[in-house]
Amino acid sequence: MATFRLQGSRVLAVDMTGDAVKAKNGSMVAYDGTMIFKKLTGGGEGIRGMVTRRLTNEQMTVMEVKGHGTCWFADHATEISLVGLQSDKLYVESSNLLCTDAGLRTGTTFTGLRGATQGNGVFTTTVEGTGQAALISDGPAVILRVTKQYPLHVDPGAYVAHQGNLKQSFQSGVTFRTFMGEGGGEAFQMRFEGDGLVYVQASERNTIAGDV
């Protein structure tokens, strides 16, 4: 299995000994040794995955990198966080997914009727299995713990990913800016209940669900 490590906070180094990883298309910044690069159609899931992503607007263009040596990845100097999976599932915005072990399965899942964040719609990218994934965020990602006693509300524009035994729902007609008298139009909050982790970023992406 490939070894993921950070060099600084904005560059991912992946050491490979014949292994393969799937990475955001165009994110390779350097490599040594011998590497083979292959563009994967539809996020690496063939025709079915490509059609699903077009229908859901969950766009994810990835490449497979395989070889012997080290490959470095980065994306517009965004911050990188490593997530280890042990036979579990990670839900992540497609725009926040930089790289995964090739053995991890990626797909899309329906997450409910809600305000659609940029590039996501009502679906979210899933990463499942055992291995590592690298997430990118505007500023260092903040990891928030959700417990049964303390549910969490998140602005959709700041949401990056979540994992664990969490129930996700959406509340319309209210947003954080509404509390300050700055909201306008229809807006949403994401609510997480259960036991798990939620990753958020320090800035808000633009959304198509109103002023959030």
How large is the share of residues in beta strands?
A: over 45%
Q: Could you tell me the radius of gyration in angstroms?
A: 17 Å
Q: Per the principal axes of the C-alpha atoms, what is the gross shape? A: elongated
**Largest sheet composition:** 13 strands, antiparallel
Low-confidence stretches: 46-58, 113-121, 207-212
Overall mean confidence score, pLDDT: 82
Q: From the helix content, strand content and strand pairing, which structural class follows? A: mainly beta
The helix fraction, in percent, is under 10%
Cα separation of the termini: 40 Å
Total beta-strand segments: 13
Helix and strand pattern: EEEEHEEEEEEEEHE
**Tally of DSSP helical segments:** 2
Question: Can you offer a commentary on this structure?
Answer:
The protein is mainly beta and 212 residues long. It has 2 helices and 13 strands, in the order E-E-E-E-H-E-E-E-E-E-E-E-E-H-E. Strands 1, 2, 3, 4, 5, 6, 7, 8, 9, 10, 11, 12 and 13 form a 13-stranded antiparallel sheet that branches. Mean pLDDT is 82; it is low at 46-58, 113-121 and 207-212.
